[in-house]
């Protein structure tokens, strides 16, 4: 692969930015950053992403050509900052080859569904445990539909913000090695202190709701793969494993769905050009 095959994928979510460095179709690195200021973006463009604080894999990006940047954003204030970058491509729903998309569907959901199709085929259900938690189901080449609710972090935050006496009781994340096998991370359902009571209410309700959506999906599409992605995927998977191990064992955690989807969109777009 020559340097000119390198490109960046940027998925702009409501909490943060998700980056991937590709060489052609090979995903080489992924990392997350906070949302950027206009000055940050200008500097990244001016230095062609080689700024030391940015990402080590890009330090040798010095071949002169502007690094292609494919952007999928659900936060317009953040994507607008890249509008003057001549090597940026903004992915829109028109570039997603699925029928039944409605105009206000989040591009992240459409692209994650494409990514899921690319790796496991269809029908497939994507659960994105991000700022919002979303269900997005596709069959054949059509969006079946989905649902949106406050994500795990947001449920804890909003309860704290809207009440006078409640703390933010989001349990600390476990070290990665322990995350998938840690039943002790669950609070008792019938809690006897405030922190546990909040965690119990949010977590047991969330996993019960998730089970209801997944079971309904499997009634319509028996044995369809169900993929779990987003920043809270490991935490949620740990809760599911602890509460409903049989269901959890049939779900697949896939951190990079959005990038597989962006790779598909780019591939189709390059094919159409040539
Ligand atoms: N470093 C982090 N910064 C922000 N959120 C994080 C971080 N690590 C884990 N999370 C969890 O990820 C969730 C956000 O998911 P993510 O997929 O990153 O968001 P989005 O794509 O909507 O910006 C939060 O609810 C939070 O609990
Ligand atoms: C539902 C979302 C807020 C999820 O965003 P995220 O949690 O990934 O930051 C985003 O996909 C969005 O703004 N969707 C538009 C509404 C819809 O999908 O119907
Ligand atoms: K997301």
From TrEMBL:
EC primary class: transferase
Recorded metabolic or biological pathway in which this protein acts: Cofactor biosynthesis; coenzyme A biosynthesis; CoA from (R)-pantothenate: step 1/5
Reactions catalysed, as given in the entry: (R)-pantothenate + ATP = (R)-4'-phosphopantothenate + ADP + H(+)
Binding locations of ATP: 11-18, 131
Active site: 108 (proton acceptor)
Role description: Catalyzes the phosphorylation of pantothenate (Pan), the first step in CoA biosynthesis.
Summary of subunit composition and partner proteins: Homodimer.
Name this polypeptide is given: Type III pantothenate kinase
Origin organism lineage: Bacteria, Bacillati, Cyanobacteriota, Cyanophyceae, Leptolyngbyales
């Amino acid at each position: 692969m020559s340097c000119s095959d390198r490109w960046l994928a940027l998925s702009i979510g409501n909490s943060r930015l998700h980056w991937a460095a590709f060489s052609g179709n090979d995903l080489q690195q992924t990392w997350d950053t906070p949302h950027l200021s206009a000055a940050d973006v200008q500097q990244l463009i001016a230095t062609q992403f080689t700024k030391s604080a940015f990402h080590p894999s890009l330090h040798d990006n010095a071949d002169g050509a502007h690094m292609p940047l494919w952007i999928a954003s659900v936060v317009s204030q953040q994507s607008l900052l890249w509008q003057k970058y001549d090597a940026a491509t903004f992915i829109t729903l028109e570039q997603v080859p699925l029928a039944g998309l409605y105009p206000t569907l989040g591009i992240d959901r459409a692209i994650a569904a494409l990514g899921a199709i690319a790796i496991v085929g269809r029908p497939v259900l994507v659960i994105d445990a991000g700022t919002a938690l979303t269900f997005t189901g596709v069959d054949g080449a059509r969006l079946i539909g989905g649902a949106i609710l406050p994500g795990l972090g947001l449920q804890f935050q909003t309860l704290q913000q809207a009440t006078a006496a409640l703390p933010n009781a989001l349990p600390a994340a476990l070290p990665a090695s322990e995350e998938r096998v840690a039943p002790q991370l669950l609070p008792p359902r019938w809690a006897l202190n405030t922190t546990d009571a909040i965690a119990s209410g949010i977590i047991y309700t969330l996993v019960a709701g998730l089970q209801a959506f997944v079971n309904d999906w499997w009634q319509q599409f028996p044995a369809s793969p169900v993929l779990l992605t987003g920043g809270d995927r490991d935490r949620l998977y740990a809760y599911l494993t602890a509460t409903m191990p049989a269901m959890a064992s049939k779900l697949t955690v896939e951190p990079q769905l959005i990038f597989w989807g962006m790779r598909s969109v780019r591939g189709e777009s390059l094919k159409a050009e040539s």
